[in-house]
Design goal:
Two copies of one chain form a homodimer. By secondary structure, chain A is mainly alpha-helical. Chain A has helices at 2-33, 40-59, 61-68, 85-103, 106-129, 132-153, 159-167, 173-194, 210-224, 260-279, 295-309, 313-327, 336-343, 360-376, 384-396, 422-441, 445-450, 455-464, 474-482, 489-500; strands spanning 233-235, 241-245, 248-253. Chain A has a domain at 2-156. In chain A, strands 1-3-2 form a three-stranded mixed β-sheet. In chain A, helix 5 runs antiparallel to helix 6 and helix 10 crosses helix 11. Chain A is globular. Chain A starts with a helix and ends in a 7-residue tail after the last helix.
C-alpha cells in the first residue's frame, strides 16, 4: 500500500515536470519559427523560470522522500521485492535523473548557465571575426567547469563518462573509443581512395521555389506515415524537431538559398525524429519510460530516414520522377544514375553539417578525441586549433583555411555540451545495426520502397523502437531488435558495400 | 529594511507568476493559430498545470506572509508610513488579487472548472440543435455556482458586484445600471427612427483575396504604430489579441468568407488591444502596476481604433482610395459617400458581434440585465428565452427566430463568465469619454488622419493610458485624462451627432 502510494506520488510529480518540459519545448519551437524578434529577452526569462519550476519539482523533498522509500538511491537496489519489471525500469530511470539533478549544486548550475550564455555570445563574435583567441578564455572556463561537473556527477573509469552519460545513458568513453577506432581505421583508407574522384552534382544547385519545396517535403512525410494531425512542418534557420507529447511532435526544415536537396534531407531527418516522438507509448506519458531512450537512439531514427532510406536507390526510383516533374529546370535532363551519384557524392570537406555519409563520422570522431583530451587534461584549450587541423589532415587529408571552417564551426562547446558529439555517430552505428535486422525481417523492402511504400518501415521501427520508450537500456533495445551484439560492423559493411559500387575502393 | 525585503519578496513572486501567465498566453495563441489538432488534449493539461503552479505562487505561504506584513489584508490599511505612492498602488493591487485568489476554496475552483468544461460542450451541442433545453441544466448549475462565488468573494451592496469586480475592478452594479440606463433610454428612440432606413452596402460583400486582406491589415497596423518587431498578425477562427510581455504582443484576424470589412475591423480592434499591451510600462513588468488596467479600459482601446478612427470619415478619406485600388471589383464604382454610409449602416439585428455602433450597446445592456436578474434571483434560467426575446423586442424591435440567434449565441455563460459582458459597453463609454479630451488636445486630428497620420493618436493614448498600467484606478485614470467626471454623456453625444448626419433622427 505504502509502496504504491509512493510510486503514485513519483508518477504525479514526474508527469507534472514532463508536462512543463513540454511547455518549454513549445516555447523553443515558437522562438525559432514565429516569435517576434523583440521578444527574445522575455523568452529567455520564460524558459529560465520554467526550468526553475521543473528543477524544484524534480529535486524537491516530496520527490526525494518518495524515491528513497522505493530504491536505494546510492546503490541502486530496489527496496521491495514486489515491483513489476515496469516499476523497476521506471525507478532505474528516476534514480538516474535524480542523481544527475541533485549532484550539481544550485550555485554551480547558475554559474554554468551564466558562463555559457556569455560564451555563446563570445563564440558568435569569435566566429564572425575568425579569431580563436576571442573565444579561448570562455572555452577555458567552460572546460574547467565541465571537468568539475564530471567530478560532481561522479564516474568509475573516465571523467568523460560522466558527461557522456547525460546524453547517452550507460555508454562509456572506453566503448565509444572502441566503436570509433574501428570505424576510423577502416574508413580512413577508403576515403583516401575516393578523394577528388570527380562526380558532377551541379544540377542540384539553383533557384528552387519555396512553396514547392515545402509541398514536396509534406508528400515525403505523408508517405513516411508522419501525422499532420499530431505534427507540423515549418521553416526555421536551422532544421529541428520539437515534441511536447506524442500528439504534438513538430518539425522544421530550412530552405537553402541554392541547394535543392538541403530541405529534402532535413525533412527526412527531422521527420525521423518526429516519428519517434509520435510513436512513443502515450500510456507511459509522464512516466520516464514514456521518454525517448537516448540522443543516440534518436539520431539513429533520423539518420535511418535521411541516409538509409533517403539516400537509397529504391527510394529515388519512386521519387526522382516526381522530383523532376516538380522542379523541372536543370533536373529535367539528368538521368537517374547521375542523380543518385550526385546526391551520394563523397568529398572531404571542412564543415561537419555539410559532410557526406562517408566522411561525416570522421568529423565526429575528431571532436570526440579533442573533447576527451580536454576533459582528461591531456589537451590544452590553446592547442585546439593545431590539434584540430592536424587531425583533419590525418583523417580527411585537408586543412581548414580558417577557424570558421575549423574549430569554431560548432556551437556545442560554447553551450557547455561536452559529451554530445559522439551521439551523432552512435546514431549511425545504431541505425546500421538495426537495419541489418530490418533487412532480414523485410527482405523485399527495396521492392516496396520502389513503389513508394514507406509505411511498413515506420511500422517496423514502431514495433522495435518507438513503443518501448525507455523501458530497455539502449544496448538491450538494440540487441533485442537485432539479436546481435552491438558493434560498428554493420555500419562499416554498409558504407563499404554502398560506396564500392560508386567509387573505385574495391570491396 | 524588513519592509523592503518583504516588498522585494512580493515583487519576485509576482514576477514569476506573471512570467508563467505569459507562457500560458503563448500556449493559448499557439492553440488558436498553429497547434496541430490532435494536441488539444495535452494542451489543456499544459494550461491546467501552469494554472496550478501560478495559483500556488499567488496563494502560497511566502506570498501571504510578506503581504500581511505590509498591508492589513482584511481592512486594506497600509502597515508602514514610509511607502511611496507606487508601493501603495502595488500593494492595493496585490491585496485585491490575493483576496480574489484565496477566497475561493480549491475544491470550489476544481468543481467550477469541471462544470464549465462540460457546460461549454453542452452549449455547443445546444446551439447546434437549437435547443435551449439542452443547455438549461448546465446553465442552472453555473448560475448557482456563480451566486455562491459572489458570496465567497464578498460584496457590499449587490452580489453581482463581486463578479463584476473580477473583470472591472471597483465598478459596481449600481454604477453600471446608471450608465446603461441613460444610454438605453436615449438610444432606444433613435434606433426606432432609423429602423429599416435603406442603405446599400452590398458592394462590401464578395470574394476577396486572403493575402491582400492580410497585407492591407498590416499596412493599417504600420500606420497605427503597431510594431512587428514586438508583434505579429496571424489568422484564426475568432480574432483575438494575446500578449506575454510588451515586447511580445500578438494579434490575429479572421478572414471572412464574404465580408471585406470583417478582417479590417478585426485588425483595427485587435490592433488597439495590441498597442495597449505594447505600451504598458516595461519597467513595471511583474509588478501588478505593469498590467493593463481592466477589461473595460482594454476594450476602450480596441473600440477607439475600430470605431472612433476606423469608422470615421477622415480615416477613409486616406484609406478608401487604397482599398479601392487593392481590391477593385465591385468597390471600383463606389463613391466615398456610399462607402462611408455602407460601413456605418445601422440596422437592428440578432447577433451581438455583428451589430453596428448604434445597436451594439443594446445587446450588451440586455445581457447585463439578464445576468443581474439571474444572480440576484429575480430571473430563473427557464425564463431566459422569454426574457431575452421580450427585451430584444423592446430595445430593438425584433424577435429572434431561433435560440441560435437569441439566447444561445454567446459562449460567455457556458464559461461561467458572469460579469464580463458589461465591459464591452463600458469600453465604448470610456473611449468616448477619452475621445472628448483627445479632440480638445488635438483639434486638428481629422486633418492629420486625412493624411494617413495615425501615430500621434497612439502617442496620445500612450501618454494618457498605456504608460500608467494599473497605477491609477480606472476612474482616476479616465478622469485624469479628461479632467471630467465619468459619464455616458460623451458616448451618447458622439452617437447622436454622428448618426444624425446619416439618418433622419434629428439632433
Amino acid at each position: 500500500m505504502e509502496t504504491e502510494k509512493n510510486f503514485d506520488r513519483l508518477l504525479q510529480l514526474s508527469k507534472q515536470a514532463r508536462i512543463l518540459e513540454g511547455v518549454s519545448s513549445i516555447l523553443d519551437w515558437d522562438q525559432e519559427t514565429y516569435m517576434p524578434d523583440g521578444a527574445s529577452g522575455i523568452r529567455s526569462e520564460q524558459v529560465k523560470t520554467l526550468a526553475g519550476v521543473i528543477h524544484r519539482i524534480k529535486t524537491g523533498k516530496k520527490f526525494g522522500t518518495a524515491l528513497n522509500k522505493l530504491i536505494d538511491v546510492n546503490k541502486g537496489s530496489y527496496l521491495s521485492k514486489s515491483f513489476s519489471e515496469e516499476q523497476k525500469a521506471a525507478l532505474r530511470e528516476w534514480r538516474r535523473d535524480y542523481l544527475h539533478n541533485t549532484s550539481l549544486p544550485t550555485k554551480f548550475i547558475e554559474d554554468f548557465t551564466k558562463l555559457t550564455s556569455q560564451a555563446i555570445i563570445a563564440w558568435r563574435e569569435a566566429k564572425e571575426q575568425d579569431s580563436f583567441q576571442h573565444f579561448a578564455p570562455s572555452l577555458e572556463k567552460i572546460v574547467t567547469m565541465c571537468r568539475r561537473k564530471a567530478d560532481l556527477l561522479g564516474y568509475k573509469e573516465h571523467p568523460y563518462d560522466a558527461l557522456l552519460d547525460l546524453y547517452e545513458p550507460d555508454m562509456t568513453t572506453k566503448e565509444v573509443s572502441t566503436l570509433f577506432d574501428g570505424l576510423r581505421l577502416a574508413l580512413s583508407p577508403l576515403i583516401k581512395k575516393i578523394e577528388n574522384h570527380p562526380v558532377d552534382h551541379a544540377f542540384l544547385f539553383g533557384k528552387w521555389d519555396k512553396t514547392k519545396q515545402l509541398a514536396f517535403g509534406k508528400t515525403l512525410l505523408d508517405h513516411m506515415g508522419y501525422s499532420f494531425t499530431n505534427g507540423r512542418l515549418d521553416c526555421s534557420v536551422h532544421p529541428f524537431s520539437s515534441s511536447s507529447h506524442p500528439t504534438d511532435s513538430r518539425i522544421t526544415t530550412r530552405i537553402h538559398p541554392t541547394s535543392l536537396m538541403s530541405s529534402i534531407f532535413a525533412v527526412l531527418h527531422e521527420g525521423g525524429h518526429g516519428l519517434y516522438e509520435m510513436g512513443l507509448p502515450v500510456e507511459w506519458y509522464g512516466n520516464p519510460l514514456g521518454n525517448a531512450r537516448s540522443l543516440g537512439v534518436h539520431e539513429s531514427q533520423s539518420r535511418w530516414w535521411e541516409t538509409r532510406i533517403g539516400l537509397s536507390r529504391p527510394f529515388w526510383k519512386y521519387f526522382f520522377p516526381q522530383l523532376q516533374d516538380t522542379f523541372k529546370g536543370p533536373l529535367k535532363n539528368v538521368s537517374f544514375e547521375q542523380f543518385y551519384r550526385g546526391i551520394n557524392k563523397v568529398m572531404p570537406s571542412f564543415i561537419r553539417i555539410e559532410a557526406d555519409e562517408m566522411t561525416y563520422p570522421m568529423h565526429v570522431i575528431l571532436r570526440f578525441e579533442l573533447e576527451k583530451g580536454l576533459i582528461e587534461g591531456t589537451l590544452k584549450v590553446k592547442d585546439i586549433p593545431e590539434a584540430w587541423n592536424d587531425t583533419m589532415e590525418r583523417y580527411l587529408g585537408i586543412t581548414p583555411p580558417s577557424f570558421q571552417q575549423g574549430c569554431l564551426q560548432d556551437i556545442h562547446w560554447s553551450m557547455g555540451g561536452f559529451g554530445y558529439f559522439p551521439t551523432y555517430t552512435l546514431g549511425n552505428i545504431y541505425a546500421a545495426h538495426l537495419f541489418e535486422a530490418f533487412e532480414k525481417d523485410q527482405p523485399q523492402w527495396e521492392k516496396e520502397v520502389e513503389k513508394g511504400e514507406l509505411l511498413f518501415i515506420k511500422n517496423w521501427l514502431a514495433d522495435k523502437i518507438y513503443r518501448h520508450g525507455s523501458f530497455y537500456s539502449t544496448r538491450d533495445l538494440l540487441e533485442k531488435a537485432s539479436k546481435k551484439k552491438l558493434s560498428s560492423k554493420a555500419y562499416l559493411d554498409y558504407l563499404t558495400k554502398k560506396f564500392s559500387q560508386l567509387y573505385p575502393i574495391g570491396h
